[in-house]
């Protein structure tokens, strides 16, 4: 017998003994030689091309039985089973066709029974991402629903292990996005910092996360954990203090079976669930995170999440259909003002939300008409907070820029126009944004005044653009802009802009050039704001602006003639 045959026989006997009822049967991973033996057997099967099928057929029954015993031992592990199971799964993927083994149930069993218990183990987490990257194409082709189904569990890998796994996770991330996971994935990404805080609280109250199923923790310890969270938030005591106030009457009146908390810690995608940010559990988590120093793990996820959103939005614009993007935009609007309370994080995430929303409107202007109800609702909230004011500003710009959805959506454009009118008249009736100037200091009053002026400029521009696109709205636009021009409010930029727009409306061709849509539309084969100079030698160019918006008054300041700017025929 050759050395190679002796090695094969030794490794096969090692696996066979462990698969049977031996001293290691209760926890096969506790045998340090077993992992090495399984790896060597897999190598033999790959290297022996001539006898590969025979070798695979001989080793498969033992490997399969070992997999089942390893899964069964997870309830009382003495060492992590993840690495051993990943090696076995690689065998199933490589040789499943030879032995007619469907790897899908085995993969799902690994995620549900093993990774859900060992995601916090950095070695298992790194090995899992390496396994997914090596087999990425095979998994996406043969099991396209696997990663999208378990994206909440995979997000725990990056949430708990942080930047050291970011590069590997970004390679896996596109596989998490599918039609079924596209919408639920967005709230989970935005809430990654809250997931980190929740996991850290679970660890404090229930011990190490390695080897313990979150599902079992939820069933057994969730009420006590949430009471402790609330106690920390409202009394200042930590979870480990065990102070007497933890059983206070205030805490006992709160519903501790908080669905939002359980939603954050789930392992599988079960659809888009509404997350109530006013619930006691979430309020307690947020308050506790504000009152205590940020952990290194939380700091890392606050930095990683915007980069994950960049990839998510890139995939969305490239691969998602219009129906999914249209359904996503109202979720973006709702989450714009409900983010983890970290100043830099909120800025980075909101910037990406608004950029994606505007890019979506640019790609499909019809979205504005289809989403007129949520847009109108957000315009009505422009006074509530600075972040809602900024969202209203961007929506005003989009409504005007894209003509309320286009020429075929006149009813929607009229409704949006009426909402802009209402917002304009509400602003004209007051020089405040929802707050009494007497109740705020000078700096805050100046900020509110500046915000109102900016909002007014956006609103009157949107009104003028809508009326330029939909000519039937011109009379109402003239009335609205006339009121602003005559108001002579303290900020001259506002009423002067309204006056300039009124002047533009007296010259329809020039008005179309300056205020018309930036994209070609029906009846306008060229961009309205672009002069086609090549036609200048044969027909009149009617949309050359002879004055520039701003503070220019009097006759035109240019001194050129048409022959200077029109091409000459040679």
UniProtKB/TrEMBL annotation:
Residue intervals of the AP-5 complex subunit zeta-1 ARM repeats domain: 30-156
InterPro entries assigned: AP5Z1_ARM (IPR055450), ARM-type_fold (IPR016024), TPR_AP5Z1_C (IPR056856)
A Pfam family recorded for this sequence: SPG48
Domain AP-5 complex subunit zeta-1 C-terminal TPR: 291-520
The organism's place on the tree of life at top rank: Eukaryota
Protein name: AP-5 complex subunit zeta-1
Record organism: Gossypium tomentosum
Lineage: Eukaryota, Viridiplantae, Streptophyta, Embryophyta, Tracheophyta
């Amino acid at each position: 017998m050759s050395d190679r045959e002796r090695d094969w026989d030794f490794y096969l006997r090692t696996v066979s003994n462990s698969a049977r009822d031996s001293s290691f049967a209760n926890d096969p991973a506790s045998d340090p030689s077993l992992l090495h033996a399984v790896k060597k057997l897999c190598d033999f099967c790959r290297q022996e091309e001539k006898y590969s099928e025979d070798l695979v057929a001989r080793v498969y029954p033992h490997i399969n039985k070992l997999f089942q015993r390893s899964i069964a031992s997870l309830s009382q592990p003495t060492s992590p089973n993840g690495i051993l199971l990943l090696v076995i799964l690689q065998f199933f993927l490589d040789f499943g066709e030879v032995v007619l083994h469907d790897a899908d149930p085995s993969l799902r069993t690994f995620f549900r029974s093993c990774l859900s218990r060992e995601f916090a183990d950095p070695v298992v987490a790194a090995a899992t991402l390496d396994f997914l990257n090596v087999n990425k194409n095979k998994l996406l082709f043969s099991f396209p629903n696997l990663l999208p189904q378990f994206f909440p569990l995979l997000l725990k890998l990056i949430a708990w292990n942080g930047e050291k796994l970011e590069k590997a996770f970004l390679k896996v991330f596109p596989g998490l996005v599918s039609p079924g996971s596209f919408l639920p994935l967005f709230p989970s990404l935005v809430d990654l910092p809250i997931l980190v805080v929740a996991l850290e609280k679970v660890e404090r109250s229930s011990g190490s996360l390695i080897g313990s199923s979150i599902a079992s923790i939820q069933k057994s310890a969730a009420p006590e954990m949430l009471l402790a969270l609330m106690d920390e938030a409202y009394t200042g005591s930590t979870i480990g203090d065990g102070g007497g106030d933890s059983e206070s009457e205030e805490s006992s009146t709160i519903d501790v079976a908080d669905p939002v908390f359980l939603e954050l810690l789930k392992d599988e995608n079960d659809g888009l669930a509404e997350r109530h940010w006013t619930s006691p559990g979430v309020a307690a988590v947020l308050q506790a995170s504000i009152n205590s120093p940020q952990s290194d793990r939380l700091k890392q996820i606050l930095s990683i999440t915007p980069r994950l959103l960049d990839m998510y939005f890139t995939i969305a614009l490239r691969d998602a259909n219009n129906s999914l993007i249209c359904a996503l935009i109202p979720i973006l609007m709702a989450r714009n003002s409900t983010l983890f309370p970290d100043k830099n994080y909120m800025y980075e995430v909101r910037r990406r939300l608004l950029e994606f929303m505007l890019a979506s409107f640019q790609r499909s202007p019809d979205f504005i008409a289809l989403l007129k109800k949520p847009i109108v609702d957000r315009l009505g909230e422009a006074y509530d907070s600075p972040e809602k004011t900024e969202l209203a500003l961007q929506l005003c710009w989009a409504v005007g820029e894209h003509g309320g959805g286009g020429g075929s959506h006149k009813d929607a454009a009229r409704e949006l126009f009426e909402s802009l009118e209402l917002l304009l008249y509400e602003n004209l009736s007051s020089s405040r944004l929802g707050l009494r100037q007497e109740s705020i200091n000078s700096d805050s009053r100046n900020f509110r005044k500046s915000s109102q002026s900016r909002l007014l400029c956006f609103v009157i521009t949107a009104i003028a653009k809508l009326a330029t696109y939909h000519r039937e709205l011109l009379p109402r636009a003239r009335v609205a802009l006339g009121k602003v021009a005559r108001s002579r409010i303290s900020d001259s930029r506002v009423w002067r802009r309204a006056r300039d727009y009124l002047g533009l409306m007296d010259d329809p061709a020039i008005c179309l050039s300056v205020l018309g849509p930036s994209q070609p539309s029906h009846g306008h084969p060229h961009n309205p704001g672009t002069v086609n100079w090549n036609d200048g030698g044969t027909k009149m160019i009617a949309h050359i602006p002879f004055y520039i918006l701003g503070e220019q008054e009097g006759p035109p300041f240019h001194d050129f003639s048409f022959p200077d700017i029109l091409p000459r025929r040679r």
